[in-house]
Amino acid sequence: RSPIILDSDPGLDDAVALQYLLGTGLWDLKAFTAVAGNVPLDHTYRNARALTRALRIDGDVPVYRGVGRTLSRISPDSGGFHGENGLGDEIIPDSTAPHQTESAVQAILRLSKEYEGELTLVATGPLTNVAAALIEDPDLARRLKKLVFMGGAVHTGNITPVAEFNVWADPEATDIVVTSGAPYTMVGLDATHAWRFTQGDLDTLVAAGPGQELTANLMRHYLKSYDVNAGQPDCPLHDPLAVGVAADESFVTAADGTIVVECASELTRGQTVFLPADEARTYAYSDAIKARTLQTGRVALGKGPRNFSAH
Ligand code: BDR
Ligand code: CA
């Protein structure tokens, strides 16, 4: 099993991403790090601890408290999309494990040294913790085996017409990550919108009975939230898909290229512009933007050939 860190803002689909990660049996989860995002850090950190208890890993997988404000010093939230507490107002008892003295940033840096060249980092919330770690020690970028983040979009948006929530919440952090030289894969809305969870999937989960109640309750809330807030009868599997792609890219189609993040414009803040590797030099951008094409990553563009089913 390969060492991995899951950095997230639980978050209904973040919670399911954690369950899915453990369920694959592929990973040795070294740390579960919380960041502010869907709800403020006090909630995401508490939820992260509670989830480790609910999933019976609270003695084994340490939870670390991350950064509570984005690089532009705001405290993001998703406006109640994930319920007031971030878990659809599901009440899950807190973990009784002692609190870690290390911060999420310190833990990420330490583990990247202990597992240099082997460690996968999957981020399913705003990239604030990862960027803070890169600011403290830019060499983190070359110590990671892989960095997969759920965020961004090439052709769409969800929080604005052109921006996805995680990147919109902290565009400056995303910019640091995609220019760091880390071997990143961006799993954005173009791919996550293509893998949906339906009412039929929920029925299957409920019928599966004991052991599946937590996932079923979280996904019931998520389906309802997409229905009420977005008028969609089913919901994307955003965060679980990023975990899936960390192990197997064939859940998505992907291409090499550069992501440039819009950090300045009030109108398009958080937009991720994709410059495909083979076309970037033909665009009419300034030399400064073209110089960025030296930093390339993998970018998910849609549904892949392998079927993705997080449950
Ligand atoms: C992302 O935003 C959050 O609300 C979800 O947890 C996911 O990480 C989708 O845009
Ligand atoms: Ca998330």
UniProtKB/TrEMBL annotation:
UniProt entry tagged with the keyword Transmembrane: no
Keywords: Glycosidase, Hydrolase
PROSITE patterns the record matches: IUNH
Classification via Pfam families: IU_nuc_hydro
Keyword Ribosomal protein: no
Source taxon at top rank: Bacteria
One of the protein's GO biological processes: purine nucleoside catabolic process
Family matches, as InterPro entries: I/U_nuclsd_hydro_CS, Inosine/uridine_hydrolase_dom, IUNH, Ribo_hydro-like
Annotated Gene Ontology cellular component terms: cytosol
A molecular function GO annotation: uridine nucleosidase activity
Occurrences of domain Inosine/uridine-preferring nucleoside hydrolase (ranges): 4-279
Name of the molecule in the record: Nucleoside hydrolase
Biological classification of the source: Bacteria, Bacillati, Actinomycetota, Actinomycetes, Kitasatosporales
